[in-house]
């Protein structure tokens, strides 16, 4: 696994300083949506997350709340869906991306953000095309849907109804994964992942599932055991670690979503390896 740490931009960082979203690979119409939101310079988590996702990598993204984590995955996800849509002769009838959230409130927040970006990026409206959520469409199965934003329980309901077809899913995001496990969604997450896994195993490698696990800061997850290592990294780089990206391969995706402990152990091992190298 590849680990990338991003230091605060006001200090000497562990990764290249990026001053614009264009440098990260976003297209002009997507960047235009950010301008409407009053956002001009990417945050640390966006600097590491956006290019990795546009490059097709499955990753763990970790940073503080309020650091721009949602845009770090929504911006590239919307661009990827638009790219895929341009290559299709027929609009898909089922979602190609799922964003799982820990609460109805988080679903609403992510959905409204996605809808705003998609509108300004010249996609069709929610009822006509790209972005569906369980509470906004009574005929989800009949709409041309690009993204489903829902809780794990809602997602299972739609899979059972046939509105979401696991074989059609190319992108999966677990937003605030640690919170979802803390809130008792573990069994639902496993059920969704098992259905996706069964479908993905029959696909060619280049058509596999791209997964994003979004978490709170690694110090919050791992606690005191990580403090000495973080202090060492921050002193050596003259700045605070503001974002972390951990690349995963297909098998690691399924292994790390088995439990929050599995993710914690892997992050701790990778951090220790990063420190000793």
Strand order, largest beta sheet: 1-8-2-7-6-3-5-4
Strand % is 5-15%
Number of strands: 8
Tell me the name of the CATH class: Alpha Beta
Poorly predicted ranges: 10-15, 124-144
CATH homologous group name: P-loop containing nucleotide triphosphate hydrolases
Shape, please?
globular
What count of helical segments does DSSP give? 11
**Number of folding domains?**
1
CATH topological fold name: Rossmann fold
Helix content: 40-55%
CATH architecture: 3-Layer(aba) Sandwich
Pfam families: DEAD (PF00270)
Domain DEAD-box RNA helicase Q: 19-47
Organism: Gossypium australe
Protein name: DEAD-box ATP-dependent RNA helicase 39-like
